[in-house]
Model the fold of this input.
Amino acid sequence: MAATKIETRGLSVAFKDFAALSSVDLAIGEGEFLVLLGPSGCGKSTLLNAIAGLIEPSAGEVWIAGRNVTWAEPKDRGLAMVFQSYALYPAMDVYGNLAFSLRVAGMKKAEVDARVRHAASMLELEPLLRRRPSELSGGQRQRVAIGRSLVRQVDIFLFDEPLSNLDAQLRAELRVEIKQLHLKLRNTTVYVTHDQVEALSLADRIAVMRGGVVQQLADPDTVYRKPANRFVASFLGSPPMNFVAGALTRDAGRVALRVDGAVVPLVRSPLEVELGEGRALSLGIRPEDILIGDDAAACDFRWDSDVALRESLGSETLLWCSLAGARVAIKSPARLAAHVGDRVPLGFSSERISLFDARTEERV
Amino acid sequence: MSGTAATLGTRSRTHPAGPRPWRLSPARLGIYLFLGAAAVFFLVPIWIMVATALKTMPEIRGGSVLLPPSALDPTAWLNAWSTACIGLECAGIRVGFWNSVQIVVPSVVLAVALGAVNGYCLSFWRFRGADTLFALMLFGIFIPYQIFVFPLIGITARLGLYGKLPGVVLVHVVFAMPIMTLMFRNYFATLPIEIFKAARVDGAGFWRIFTSIMMPMAKPIIVVAVIWQATASWNDYLLGLVFAGREHLPMTAQLNLLVSAEMGAHEYNVDMAATLQTALVPLVIYFVSGKWFARGIAAGAVKG
Amino acid sequence: MCHISSAIEQMIATTNRHFSLRRWLAPITAMAPAILAVLVVYVGCLLWTVFVSFTDSRSIPDLAWSGFGQWTRLYADYRWRTAMGHMFVFGAFYIVGCLVLGYLLAVFVDQRVRGEDFWRTVFLCPHALSFIVTGELWKWYLDPEFGLQRSVRDLGWTGFTFDWIADRHMALYTIVIAGIWQSVGVVMVLMLAGLRAIDEDIWKVTRVDGIPPWRVYTSVVPPMVVPSILTSVALLGAGAVKNYDLVIAMTDGGPGIATDVPSKFVMEYLFERSNIGLAAAGATTMLLTTIAVAAPLVAWQWWQRRRRARGPA
Done:
């Protein structure tokens, strides 16, 4: 990632009585694929629209390619945008939709044609060029919407939940296509979604947002394994991370977490010095990180539990057990799965846990 | 988080940060100019009507029609109301006013009631021929009255209603029915049918559902329908002219008689006063009802 | 268990039977006035008039078939042909004028202007008036002696003439102007509704892609407001055929027959000149014209329904 392509400085957007964005600082590198992830109302679309210039900020600046574009019109920012509702011109055929912005700009017919056909071939739209949007399927329409952005040959692509209107299978297909497109073109891309699977698979970096504030900005791996707070931890991962309440204590000379009678050893030694005895923490462990049966034998922390519920997910099975009074989910390969009522040995390695302060919910 | 830490904090006045200050650009100005010019086009005739009604004849002859009256002279107004001659009678246009009231009030009540029942019926109780019936009704909205007038005279005469108040009210209601039905039907179509089904399951019958459930929910469209029908009925000319008979001529017909039958010098101020008086009721309804009026147009004109 | 369930079944069966009868009785009774009105007036009277146009009825109806006699008489009549011509000229200018001005007003009002309610109230208020009132107003406003012409001359422009209303060739256009004044508010409301129904994301795309607003309003928007346009054309067209009150009040068909219209012709032959058959032929012509104007709207709606049913390929 070379130069910074898009930058927001202290960007805030307030609507009448409600703050949609609170002082967001973001730097997006050239060619980077950044995903804005979060639940409805977290401000991700607002941020995207503010970068595009469709919404005016109440405070802060937007910089693109070294230029302050805070007051610039969207068309002067060198970007293209793809929407959830496709927003195709219904009265024009696919060719017309792709060519419209170029024609309006006064481009010569030959060049318009070249660009349109190039984009059409990249997105496999050639057989559909003479069709109207109403005659296309959802996936085809979205490809046309992407094509409309392609023909403009800009450096920045903005996507506002483009796959949310499609069914699961189409979503998976188009996701792959978008990824391939990005690899080919290496455009700077900002992509908004509420689907964490999309985020994890597409992003170079993810900005997890909530209530108008960026909770964590990091690559997918970090966001998944080392979530910055409890919200991020529970938003990513399906099923979500398990949480168990506990308190810091000392056990056999090493720092550990007392969890309702059991003691979980903790690995990281710098911790011991800073935190106080008895400090209330939440322990987080992902379902796939809890091992069962023989695999559990090698773990730092082991316990036995009854299986309360069993959900078969095809390739995997979800077992619901308990730890220190809390319900925990365990993902295990289907063949190993136990049955309801069985008492099974469970365990996890203390490298895999995340600890959060019980009050602030921040990572410790 | 920002990589270029050096530029942070140095927000000079040349670098914008935050909301753009509101400026009156040429384009914005152009919009308001156009709208303003259009407003002038729309308001001048009404202004002229009001101004002329309050002037004296010498003033009208002497000055521009666009000028305001130098003094608010009510003589023309009073003259038009109570002493102007319409045909042989010289009792002013207030006769027409009361006639119009007597025609409009019953026709509004009946037309809205019928429209509501019809709309309810067509929305929820699909019976064979319902759609054809509705299509025929809609077709009727467009057709000129001249097609129906003569045979309708025959029918009302045979019923003993020709030239009488009930007759003209009946005719108003018949011609109002399509659009009233359309409004109510479109409105009921937006209500969830589950309410209706739940009521049926609970054992409620046709009329019960109508009076206890649908009508209370229909308040917005009732307002719209009343406004629409009151205006349309009051402003009608042809039906009143043909069916109301001499004693019950509505205000619009009387207005035309007043103005067109004048011999010799026209008393323009009296004409305009009478015109204004005829326009007053619908104008008041219009200004009081505000958004509802426009809603009526959308409800009536947007066909299913 | 068996007894109870069969008893319940019987109960349901009997209630259904009762319910079926009663079910249809109430709606049919409720719709009776409508059914009556449609059959007697909308269908019956219409057919009667059409039939009478093929009879030789003069001052009283005479139901003996006489063929196309009245029709030939009608179209041989210079006055009728002139009136028809006036109707089409009026209709064309009225419809086009209302569409263009209505669209412009809607576009301008849609620009997030302040006081949108105020503008809409102003532009729509003429619609609250009767056509008679409008006619009287404009007749006075355009009075060559005391109206607009005089006022403008008083302001200094002494050569200004606007005596169209008294001019045999131009009088019809004054009616057009008054008609547009009265009706354009409605068209504006319909257009505005159509504009507002456009997906907001399309506006965003045009802003990002750099399409200038005027281009959007001329290339992108019109196909998307076709329903509003068609509805307006149908309503305006029907209004143009029906046009009676406005002409009566404003010029009474004059000067001479310069603003004569079919509706006036028909009314005169019905009530004053006692030729019911001729009037019926005239009325039937008006009916056919109305159908011709309203038909495209109906056809388009039907075609749209079929296309939607077919779905994406």
